Amino acid sequence: MADGARPAYLAETQEASYLQLHAEEIAAAARRIAPHVRRTPLLTTDLDPRLRLKPECFQVTGSFKVRGAFNAVLQLKERTPPPRGVIAVSSGNHAQALALAARTASLTALILIPEDANPAKVAATRSLGAEVLQDGITFENREQRLREVMAERGLTLVHPFDDWDIIHGQATAAREVLEDDPEVAAILAPTGGGGLLSGTALAAKIHRRDTLVIGVEPERADDAQRSFRSGAIQTLPSSPQTLADGVRTTAIGRRNFEVMVERRLVDDIVTVSEEEIERALVTAWLKLKLALEPTAALPLAAYLAGKAPPAEASPVGLILSGGNFDQAVVARLLGSA
Amino acid sequence: MADGARPAYLAETQEASYLQLHAEEIAAAARRIAPHVRRTPLLTTDLDPRLRLKPECFQVTGSFKVRGAFNAVLQLKERTPPPRGVIAVSSGNHAQALALAARTASLTALILIPEDANPAKVAATRSLGAEVLQDGITFENREQRLREVMAERGLTLVHPFDDWDIIHGQATAAREVLEDDPEVAAILAPTGGGGLLSGTALAAKIHRRDTLVIGVEPERADDAQRSFRSGAIQTLPSSPQTLADGVRTTAIGRRNFEVMVERRLVDDIVTVSEEEIERALVTAWLKLKLALEPTAALPLAAYLAGKAPPAEASPVGLILSGGNFDQAVVARLLGSA
């Protein structure tokens, strides 16, 4: 890493000021989004007394994504002149979050969703007032189409993870965990593009430098782990086939990489098998009584498999990212378990 | 009703002192059980801004029943001499709650469970340290067998609902709802034997005399509604066949009747169809993101069907009683919806 050659005292000073800058932004994000998002509770559970659960399934729109979306959109709205509208590519939780944030800020939102996406998610995005463009959009051409449509219509991109305002918004979830239980010694969060994980890392290290932060991703989508280990962003050849449909991005973002790897604010990234995800999801429903989506079960999967955190770290906070599951998946897993 | 002929001022005075006595008992129950039960949060939801959800699925053992069980058992333990042990008939949430409370108080617990009960619930009760007796126990002979075994072994009965300590313990759930949101104008709770509903009624009327309290039961188990309307305890000919397996009792208890009907502290009791229960359960999973059991969906079913409360009452508290569902039932409902 680039700063490996610097004297330790200098690296530390720099880290302190780096964290201080982000701390101010995260505190501002928390104030900014408070009227629009829900302060989800921190739950304990009979399953394991070490666990502290942050159920973002109860968040507005059913996922943590509104935290970042509101933080980004409310700031865009204050620009002079304000943007014509916002645009994003997403078939998932970011689409609904951005649609709601834009509607709240009286901005138009255009969401590009690949043609083969789940019709229920398309309908949910439209019902929040966004325009949805699907014609000719595929997973492969979506980034290119995005640039074209942005230019045509003069819309402002709200990236789902590689954006500091998004990262600072997502950080408020872990910040609340640590407000509610300052003793939490380790936090586990899912990682796809790294927006939630890099925000979690900033919030945790601001709270206490030795709070462990561990990212969890599917084995089939191990680009974040490989990026973490190699010190360079690694990209998957194609969108991974995993039950955890919230983390199908092919690479983490540049800003997320800075926080997670270059600044070493994430302590480890572990992977879980599809079977471990399925088992954790069933455990979440049966034992935690939380109707989670598969992606939200990633931290529980790593915990139950004994992959993270070390046994001495307690209590352990799990960021359970959302509850927008496909009901056919629940029916299949509960029916066969 | 007996006090109908009394002057209004006298009836009111009596009600005030009646509520005052119960208020002290409920406050004492809250203090007594606090180290052993969980303070569940009060949730808001995107589904409807009027709703305030009390998710007792997150309660210790997965249902509100530990509130009453701990309040009863901890007081029994203080008797001189303490009881030899406790006994109950139950195949459901009371069994697990009593088993845990007894183990915590270092008392033995014997639970009579009919032979055809769900093996998972039997195992859960045993795993909490209770002795389970199933040999020759049927739904029909269970009360008689209970009396016989009580006498043989010198054990003390902890009735699941017709017991003031149980009622005062269950009352703490509604008390917390009103602590967390004192503006709640109506509370809906499931009713079987009436332990939760009579406790809810006491807590609500202590808080403010005009807080509406509405019980919800399946159409197929409408004895509480008929008792409420007729002014006399009505008994079902046999245990009703309803998806809401937590309310299969055939009649409300004498003490519950006193609170609910004689003292007029419940404002109404409404019934819901099996289809309405099924729809509400699916809505709880999909929209509330709560993995509820069917009985816990009763208040939501009444609310969604527009049966209670009146439109002007807002906010509306729903006591969602537990999350110990049969996974085959949920798999079927989510698979076919």
Provide structural commentary.
Two copies of one chain form a homodimer. Chain A is an alpha/beta fold. The first copy, chain A, has twelve helices and nine strands. In chain A, the strands form two sheets. The first copy, chain A, has a five-stranded parallel beta sheet, sandwiched between helices. A four-stranded parallel beta sheet of chain A has the order 4-3-2-5, with helices on both faces. In chain A, helix 1 crosses helix 6, helix 6 crosses helix 7 (195-207) and helix 7 (195-207) runs parallel beside helix 9 (254-262). Chain A binds chain B through residues 38, 41, 43-46, 55, 57-58, 60-62, 284-286, 288-292, 323, 327-328, 330-332, 334-335, 337, and chain B through 38, 41, 43-46, 55, 57-58, 60-62, 282, 284-286, 288-292, 323, 327-328, 330-332, 334-335, 337.
List keywords for this structure.
2 domains, 4-stranded parallel sheet, homodimer, alpha/beta, 337 residues, Rossmann fold, 5-stranded parallel sheet
